[in-house]
Amino acid sequence: MPLHKTKFNASWLEKLDFDNTPVKRWLKQGGQQSTFVCTLCKTGDLCCGNKGWQSIECHMKNKKHSDNLKLLKENNIFTIRTESNLIHSEQSSSSNVSMTTPAAPSTKNISFSDQVTRAETLWAMNAARHGYSYLSCDGSSDLFKKMFPDSNIAQQIKMERVKLSYVISHGLGPFFHRGLIQDIKQCERFVLCFDEQKNHQNSKQLDLLLKYWSVQKQCVVTRYYKSVLLGHAPAHTIRDSILDSFRTDGIDIKRLLMIGRDNPNVNKTIEKLLDEELKKVGGELLKIGPCHIHVVHNAFKAGTTKSCWHIHTFCIDIWSWFRHSPARKEDFANIADELDETIQKTILYFVCTRWVLLGKVVDRILIHWEILKEYFLVYLPGNNQAQIKENKKYNSIKLFLSSNISRTRFLFISYLCRVVFDKFLTIFQKTGPMIHLLYKELSDLYRVVLLSFVTIEHVGNKQGGELLSVDYKLAEKQLNDKQIKIGEETRKSLTLLSKDEKETFFQDVRNIFHSIALYLKSNLPLHNSFLRDLKILGVSYRSDPQGCDAIVRIGRYIPGLLSVNEIDLLSDEWLLYSIETIDDSWVVKRKYNDVDGKEHIEYHEIDFYWDKILSIVRHNGCSKYPTLSKLIKNILIISHGNADVERGFSINGNILTEDRTLLSEKSINGLRATYDAKSFSGNGSVHKVPINIEMLRAVQKSAASYKDELLKNKTIVAAQEQVNKQREKTEIEKKKLLEQENELMSKYKKLQTEQKTAQLLLEEGNQRIGNSLRKRDFTDIQAAYALNKIGTEKMKIIDEDMSQIMKDISMIQQKRAHADREQSNKKRKLAAEQVLLEENATKFVK
């Protein structure tokens, strides 16, 4: 722990208190280097020289401080702090807006117009949070006036569809995006997570998320970065979109640590292409494979499809049978009433890319199993023959429900998901840092699968990579039918099966386990020593004797993060950490009893624990673990799966509905950025998002920015129309020139024919002269001479005409080439003007 006379550390001002309020709102250094002051409680100098940051935490637990903080949060008047070291100017980037009590002596109320803007801002964020369409908010201003007739602010609110649209797309969206960029530029490294999905606009929406250690939050965060709408989405197009986005925002690609992705080949190629770009600037990507959540889903798929039970097909058939038919749902409910059963929950839809969730769908069907049998096997044949006649879907459902073995299969699938797979997915679909748990949980998953059908003597105490050596195909090493793990409910249902059905069932179960084990063995990274070493970041491994060696190996493995000297310091810092005194509150979040009186313990996320450790300082105020801090903060951001991106697909579905297919890319980005800010800054609630002067100014300037963009687009459209008209004119001229050229070419070919005729005349004249000279008969000389003269004159005229035609053709071709160059130049000029307009618009927004 820190020694006596710990100095006040300026980095403490970046921390959050227990209610996630930035401590810099009320904390400042006291008159001495080892003291602090709480401006909220109006304290004098309080000592932090003995316990350092823990002294401040003790003050935060004080009831008076908690009550003052509560008053601060509940106050609805926004004020500007007037501390002596703060210049209050709209233009100043250091303006600090916070909520304080009205009686605070050093505050002044913001203007009425800003209070109106604040109200409009809150409503805009709320609309983005809940996915309200812009049209649905058209009457909100009049509604607020009726609801709050005594409020001057409500009387002035104006938030119709157009204003709501540009406030989000040109005000809040860019504001929150700039905040993200400022935060990301302060971190050492970051992870890019991406995936694409077809949206309701029939476009491929590429979503980009950034995972990094936030200086503002002092923990690992995953933030929405941006969306790009694509048509064709080959690997090089996605790479270019990513690189262009980084360049636009001034993000150095050398700080990219790794790519979080799933396993399609196109994503592998993207990772390879980005790694090549990184190597060009002296960097390199960390590679630990694809999303392991997908690997687990695909392992389950490999097993269930091997059995040929087609349970997923049956689930989809049942869901689709009732989906669009209220009459069928009513008949089904009536059957349930007759059987004195209750329809507790509706049938779920099975998503073919989330195979383990088949267990949840199967559970719903098992709940209604008897009702389904009565409905499909008794009610429909007796009351709706026309409906089921030659109905393939009904025949398939009937085949499943008529078989005794079907329910046994369903029970086994339910057991497999619930007992074997659900634990892993529950852990790794969280947003927090989980990479230190990945290797052990994957190892435990594979071990559980093996122990489900292989004897424990054969598996032994093997863990991790050792499990890959287990030969599970040996029949003598496998559990018999009475021992194999299928679940108690499944085993009870076996009494209804015949001997042959039992044999078939157990053979299918073994095939399922074999296929799952084979897929996991082929795709799990159990030989990856880097992932294995990361377990030492867990609290329970602090005193592990292998910790020093492991942390050094981890430091070496991360490309370009630590220098040789820094790696040399790792083992010493780890030794100091291993004997550090740890406060239980750094590990345990809370203890509570459930309704049965059983005690439960809720633990902090691992980044909370490490933030406490890495905040410890020496007596001189310097960090005690500077090298560990650099390494561990960039280890905890490593992606353990692509669940964060896929959660974003649900947000997209809420924002971009079938009724909102005309939203622009800028609007989509604005809506997603605002939604993300609600989670990042407001802990999931819009009213908790801190609103400062910069945000209000961004909202107020959004109208001008929007109009500027409209003008820019209008200018571009006008210029494009002019270019189109000029192109049409040029095309007409080119067409005429081409017709002239073709006409001249026809004449040229005709002259070539005449040239041949003249040549024949010359040849005939020369032949006659030759014959006359041989025979010494000069009577034919005169006729031959006349032929030569006619042929020569004709050749001369033809040659002159052909030369002129070629000159004319050459001139026409030059005119056509000139027209093409002019057209290209105008296109380039238009493109340059468009880029300039966009740059000016960007500067205006900033």
TrEMBL record:
<dbReference type="InterPro" id="IPR008906">
    <property type="entry name" value="HATC_C_dom"/>
</dbReference>
<feature type="coiled-coil region">
    <location>
        <begin position="720"/>
        <end position="754"/>
    </location>
</feature>
<keyword id="KW-0175">Coiled coil</keyword>
<dbReference type="Pfam" id="PF05699">
    <property type="entry name" value="Dimer_Tnp_hAT"/>
</dbReference>
<dbReference type="InterPro" id="IPR012337">
    <property type="entry name" value="RNaseH-like_sf"/>
</dbReference>
<dbReference type="GO" id="GO:0046983">
    <property type="term" value="F:protein dimerization activity"/>
</dbReference>
<feature type="domain" description="HAT C-terminal dimerisation">
    <location>
        <begin position="622"/>
        <end position="670"/>
    </location>
</feature>
<protein>
    <recommendedName>
        <fullName>HAT C-terminal dimerisation domain-containing protein</fullName>
    </recommendedName>
</protein>
